[in-house]
Every structure is written in C-alpha cells, then in structure tokens.
Specification:
It comes from Tsukamurella paurometabola (strain ATCC 8368 / DSM 20162 / CCUG 35730 / CIP 100753 / JCM 10117 / KCTC 9821 / NBRC 16120 / NCIMB 702349 / NCTC 13040) (Corynebacterium paurometabolum). InterPro entries: FA_desaturase_dom, Fatty_acid_desaturase. This is Fatty acid desaturase. Pfam families: FA_desaturase. This protein is mostly helical and 428 residues long. The protein is built from 16 helices and 2 strands. Strands 1-2 form a two-stranded antiparallel sheet. Helix 3 packs across helix 10, helix 4 packs across helix 10 and helix 10 packs across helix 15. The radius of gyration is 23 Å and the shape is globular.
Length: 428
C-alpha cells in the first residue's frame, strides 16, 4: 500500500535528508537572487503572444461562417489561434501566475492574488485545492484530492467499489471537460453524495449551507465562461454571416476549449500517475520538515521529456518534479533546475522519474484501466505494483526490512533507493 516511512523507503539517514534539503534550499536561493529583467521580459512576451493569438482567433471567427474555402480556412484559423491562446493562458500563464511565480515583480496585473484565468474553474477555489491541499499534501492518501480527482481509482490504497468498473469512461469524460472537473473539485461532490444517500454518523453534521455557497460560486463562474465562449463572441459573427456564422464561431470555441482541456489533462496525469509516482500516508507527514517535504515531492511526481516548444505549451509542467519542489519560482527556469535536480538525485542515488510524454501518459492510462478491476484480478502485490509501492517492497520473507540507510559500497559509491529498485527489477 502507500509508503509509511519515507526515509526508510528512500534509504536515507536523517543527516542525508538534511543535507539534501540544504542543497535544494541553495538552489532556490540561486534562482531567487538571479531573477530580473530577462525573466520579466519573458512573461510579458508570453502574455503579448497569447493576447495576439486570442484576438486573431476572434477576428477569424467573424468570417468562419462564410461559404466555401474562405469560411473553412477562417474557421480552421480561428480554432487554431484560440486553441493556442487557451492552452498558453491555462498552463504557462494562469497556472503559473496563480502559483505566485511572478509576484516578485510587484506588477498587479500578473500578481497571484489578482489573476483570474480563462477557465470554468474559480481561481480562488483552485488556489486552495491545488496550491495548498495538493502541493502541501502531495499524493497523501485521504488528503490530496488530486489522487484520482475524487472519481478515479489510481492506487490500491483506494478500496475498490463497483462504480470503478467504469474508470476508463470517467477518465475520457474528465479529459474532454477537464476545466469543469477542476471547477467542481472544491465542492467535494463525493462527500456530498455520501452525506445525501448514505448518512451515518460521519456525515450527520454535513455543512450544507457551505456546500450551497460554494456551488453558487462554481455555477456563476461556469455561467460566465459559457456566456463568453458560446453566446457573446459567436453573436458578434451574426452581422457578418448570420446564424451560420454564430454556429461556426461557437464550434471553433468548442474545439479550442476541448484541445485545452485534453492537453491540460495529459500534462497533469503525466506528472502524477505514471509508474513509480509514489503515494504516502498522513501518519508519515505529521511532523514533516522542509527537507522531508522536498523528498516526498521528488518521490511522488514525474517528468516528461521533449523539445523547448513542448515544455512551453505544457506550462513547463513536463518538469513536474521541479515544479513541486519550487512551485513559486518562474517556470522559464525549470529546464535549468531540472539539470541541477538530476545531479542531486545522482548524488543521493535517488530515482528521477522521467520519460517521453507518450510513455508517461500510457502508463497513467494503464493504471486507470487496470485498477477499474477488483484487486483479486490483479497480479502484482499491493506493496510492489508499478503504480503502488510500500516499505514492504524492501522486506525479506520473514517480514524484516532489508533497507540499510546511507549505504556505501566497497568502491565508495552510494547505494540508495535507485540502485535497490534496479536490483529488484533485474531479479524479476
């Protein structure tokens, strides 16, 4: 099941973890002290390119209702420009700005407290569920709702229930409407449904007034986004091409929103649900120090590799490990940070979970499909399955741990988690 002793699992002594934390702290200070005008120019260029693309998409949408090749070309241009604008606004701008990555500039326009993104998800609610709950309690069972988003089974720590047979269907729906999945996340709908239908002592005092307050905010934001994308802007095409123009402009918006949602889903799932993205228990983090928090982020997240363009359109979330270590540092520095963090992983013989975007996404899907079934139909053990490990992964047949913390071999090389994982894989 989930990891209960992170230090033991990582094969690190307390002194090792403190030293690891000191190196990561020093790396943070290096970036903080070097932030400056080049970083500011970068984010302003991104904002400008996003707004130019969105404006172009709206203008092309006015002509999308024309008949013949001109209308088809205008529709395609509108859908393409709006897709780019929405992807960049969601990932490189909205997500990162609301993390406070650019607060150091003291520019009220791009301050985390003021930015409201082009999404059905309310920014204030998202900052709580994501910035606080997810980043503080990353992959901690029963605390981090991003573990399956309240509907998907992605670890065997989640007891199987019959509705989970449709895991793959839920995931398709979630991917194509990811902004709405994030929008309702703060409502904790599963708890509301259990309170409504199951009752019991646990839900006897469920706070329905608070639920209704949140629901009103969620529906208001969804309503504003729907009106903007499917009423206001499509209506602007009516004077030019009539009802046909309205439909074409609305469909271009729909394509752009779907592209943004599927891409957002893909980048997020690649960072959290591939093989070896570990899960943890709340007991293990009750008295967690900052260095221990660093270590948990390194073990619980995953990267994907690709070109600079791929990292840009993903909001640099292909560097999910670095993002979780430093969520408030500028995203344009993540590629540099990745190289340095890999060096630190080498030094402490820790795994650095990365691969192609297609491999990471495929592993996420395989987990979701596989765990739609009850455990009795699954082959691997609950302690050493690709998607779920525990400390017992390193216990011998008598139930005694084989972990030696801070182990150094005869040649003076550290033998840590990565080496032992490789040995386990080779023995199978």
């Amino acid at each position: 099941m989930a990891i209960t002793d992170i230090a033991e699992y990582a094969h690190l002594t307390d002194a090792d973890i403190e030293a690891l934390g000191a190196e990561l702290d020093a790396l943070r200070r290096e970036i903080e002290e070097s932030r400056g005008e080049e970083d500011a120019k970068y984010i302003r260029r991104v904002i400008k390119s996003q707004r130019v693309a969105e404006t172009a998409g709206r203008v092309f949408g006015l002509a999308a209702g024309m008949k013949g090749w001109k209308g088809k070309a205008a529709w395609a241009a509108s859908a393409a420009c709006l897709s780019y604008a929405k992807v960049i606004e969601n990932n490189e701008l909205g997500h990162n700005i609301m993390h406070g990555q650019w607060d150091w500039m003291n520019d009220p326009e791009i301050h985390s407290a003021n930015w409201e993104w082009d999404s059905a998800s309310d920014g204030k609610f998202w900052r709580h569920t994501h910035n606080y709950m997810h980043h503080k309690y990353t992959n901690v069972t029963d605390m981090d709702d991003d573990i399956g988003y309240g509907i998907l089974r992605v670890t065997r720590d989640q007891p199987w229930e019959p509705y989970m047979l449709f895991n793959p269907v839920y995931n398709v729906i979630l991917a194509t409407g990811f902004q709405y999945g994030k929008a309702v996340q703060h409502l904790e709908l599963m708890n509301a449904m259990k309170a409504m239908f199951n009752g019991g002592e646990q839900y006897a005092n469920y706070d329905w007034p608070e639920f209704r307050r949140r629901l009103k905010i969620v529906l208001t934001k969804i309503g504003k986004q729907t009106a903007k994308d499917y009423v206001l802007f499509p209506a602007m095409a009516v004077p030019f091409t009539g009802a046909r123009g309205y439909k074409k402009a609305a469909s271009a918006n729909y394509v752009a929103n779907t592209v943004r949602d599927v891409w957002d889903h893909m980048t997020i799932f690649c960072g959290h649900f591939p093989d070896d993205a570990e899960k943890f228990t709340i007991e293990d983090i009750d008295n967690e120090t900052l260095p221990e928090w660093y270590l948990r982020q390194m073990l619980g997240t995953a990267n994907f590799e690709g070109s600079n363009a791929l990292h840009f359109i993903s909001g640099h979330l292909g560097r999910q490990i670095e993002h979780h270590l430093y969520p408030d540092l500028p995203s344009n520095r993540y590629n540099y940070l990745a190289a340095r963090v890999q060096e630190i992983c080498e030094k402490y013989d820790l795994p650095y979970n990365t691969g192609s975007i297609w491999r990471q996404y495929a592993e996420s899907w395989r987990t979701i499909i596989k765990l739609s079934l009850p455990d009795k139909y699954l082959k691997a053990t609950v302690d050493d399955a690709p998607e779920t490990h525990s400390n017992k992964r390193f216990y011998d047949e008598t139930g005694v741990t084989t972990v030696v913390k801070g182990e150094i071999d005869a040649e003076g090389n550290r033998r840590g988690l990565r080496s032992h994982v490789q040995e386990l894989a080779a023995s199978k």
